[in-house]
Amino acid sequence: MPTQESTSSTERSRALGLSTFAFTVCFAVWTIFAIIGIEIKKELGLNDTEFGLLVGTPILTGSLVRLFLGVWTDQYGGRIVFPLTMLASAASTVLLSHATTYPMMLLAALGLGLAGGGFAVGVAYVSKWYPQARQGSALGFFGMGNVGAAVTKFVAPWVMVAMGWQAVAQIWAGVLAATAVLFFLFAKDDPDLAARKLSGEKPKGLKEQLEPLKNEQVWRFSLYYFFVFGAFVALALWLPKYLIGVYGVDIKVAGMLAATFSLSASVFRAYGGVLSDRYGARRIMYTTFGVSMILLFMLSYPATDYVIHGVKGDIRFSTSMSLVPFVIAIFVLGFFMSLGKAAVYKHIPVYYPDHVGSVGGLVGLVGGLGGFVLPIVFGAVSDLTGIWTSCFAVLFALVAVALAWMHLAIRQMEQKASGIDVRTLPEFPEMAGLHDAARHPPLEAGKILSDWRPEDPAFWESTGERIARRNLFISIPALLLAFAVWMVWSVVVAKLPLIGFDYTTDQLFWLAALPGLTGATLRIFYSFMVPIFGGRLWTTLSTASLLIPAFGIGYAVQNPNTPYFIFLVLALLCGLGGGNFASSMSNIGFFFPKARKGNALALNGGLGNLGVSVMQFVVPMVITSGVFGVLGGEPQIAAKTGAHLWLQNAGFIWVPFIIASSLLAWFGMNDIADVKASFAEQAVIFQRKHNWLMCWLYTGTFGSFIGYSASLPLLAKKEFPEVDALKYVWIAPLVGAISRAATGWVADKWGGARVTFWVFVAMIVGVIGVVHFLEAKDFQGFLAMFVFMFFVTGIGNASTFQMIPNIMRREVPRLMPELSAAEATRQAEKEAGAIVGFTSAIAAYGAFYIPKTFGSSITLAGSPLPAFYGFLAFYVSCAVLTWWAYTRRGGLLHDVERGIAAAPIAQGAPA
Fold it and tell me: Taking every annotated instance into account, which residue ranges of this chain make up the domain Major facilitator superfamily (MFS) profile (predicted)?
């Protein structure tokens, strides 16, 4: 008797492949009105509501029949039900091509919609071939047939322009009929049906099949699917018209752009199934609803003109989403919808293995109804309000209701599940009443590392090193992007005057300085976030937050009338990238043993710092060409040279990488269960004298690195206007970043304090050299001295961090003599980690005060030289402080670094 276990992988693959292909063709026919409906609307003179009804009618039929088609598939098998469904739809599609009146087209559309019912047939048929552990992946792959909507959008416009909409209907009908024949010839009965035929067992009756529909959970899942699938279908139908109306593109371009949404909402469904199998559908649903709310809020905000009555007159500016960000936003929305679709259907074969047809049919029915109801609602709301973005406002309200209902239901069921450890449930706790421990094994902890022992050599070699390296390799690009966005204004401000922004030198330096102000301030808070929220969640959120300034810059620079205060706000928001360093370094430090902590943090910090030079190298290139093609927006014209500049690319270029890095952090990183500490527990560092001394010294190293990075492009352009400085200045921060990553061994060999002292001596020499070459008007010497200073700051960044753990290992036993050696070691490590984060926060203010000092110096004295004299005095104070407190005979680290005193408790450095 055939069973799931006895069927071969070849048979399974054939059943899945045939079903997915058939569903793709069905979906292409089902959504055909998204393209031909636009031409029909013109021919018949339909209003938006009538158009919405025509587009939604096939969706209505395809939705209503899903319940019965699912039941019939359970009873009679997909091999016969699927071809009959496709043939009936093909006949109606041919009829449509001969219809000439609106009522006749509605009638043909009803029959055409049978193609949409193929989904319920495929779900019931495919699920019979796979075991429970693989059903999420299998059904996710089958659901990729949604890509048929993209096929129609890509191909149908060209066929319609060349041959007319009637030809599209006839060709699509022919392909559907041929697919029905091929499916019947090559498909086999599913294992359950074959077993029933051998045993003579009768299929379950309709009443028995519909029995599970009384469960509230089934209807709640139906609501979720109403959004993730129904809204997908509705947008797939509505987007071509939206793009034509809002952005003025033609039908071919509208079809291709709308297809990007259909593609992302389809092809990633298989990935959603894999993620649901691995991590659980509950997490996927929360992520889907949360991200969708954010995106729909952005999409629903209409293009608006603002008038602010200011002191010197009215200030006018506009906000709108241009074509490129819109396409990116709907692509991301489609991606998360595809994950959500797979997550919903992950539950059905798990909890209702004997009723997949009826339960899957009902969920599909309600979801499909969304594809019918929502286009009509979109049309009605558009007619009523006259606002194009009202369709996204409707979806925002829908997803907010779904998320709220899901969360409240889960919390209620958790409270009611007395006697059941809800943490052992594989999916939603709301399914507690249906939970069967034998059938539904608990999920693994997944991303939470409950057992983490990096100091255990056996654990490290077998498990720990692999996990730690993965987290490090994901953290580095995220931190690199953070630095790139943080410092992007250092290049953008140098180009603003060229395209019509009439700002003073001091105003431009303010824009370059403000990201440093917010970045440094946020670091104070970010340095305490990892033990409170977990490194994985915080890395994901902090990286994703970079999308706000990246998009904002892309919008703002395209309009010379954008008010200055909008640029100030965007500059402040770029500081979100600056805060990431503190949390990133803190998080990675927890993964590595003491012997490898320094190298890991040097790589994370040093390669992350590369974001500055990467940005200063990449942005000048991407703003000189339309790298996004026709989707990149119109170029700006340089006032003096007439050259074309796409300054918006300075923000947009980072968007895809930020999205990818955020997803990689969420799905690839881990949280360590033992890393838990409140802010109060970490706040003891504010009582430590050496915390504040190291803040001063680290400001002299990292503060100089980040401050000069922010100000060097604009400073070089002001002092050497005859030189295209942007071609060269990126070299300096590149050298600084590499020197930090490559010179940690210097401090390990000679001692952090001794190296830091000579770093400040070298910085004094560097400043004197810069002053000399500024007065000589020698750009090459000027740049060479800055490269030298950046190289030295890289060494100093590593050496100052090397000092911190050694200082605390000396101080904690003196300050807390009641602690045992082991307790003192743990306390020293905890305080050292917090001090590393806090000192990085204070030092980051260099990104504010150095550009601002240059701006004020040029405004007041007409030259940056007074600023350099001030920096010279600061480096002298740093050298004196390092010598007096740490390296002189009697200093805290003098004997330790020279091997005279016994080694302090515990060894290793955090950076």
Answer: 14-414
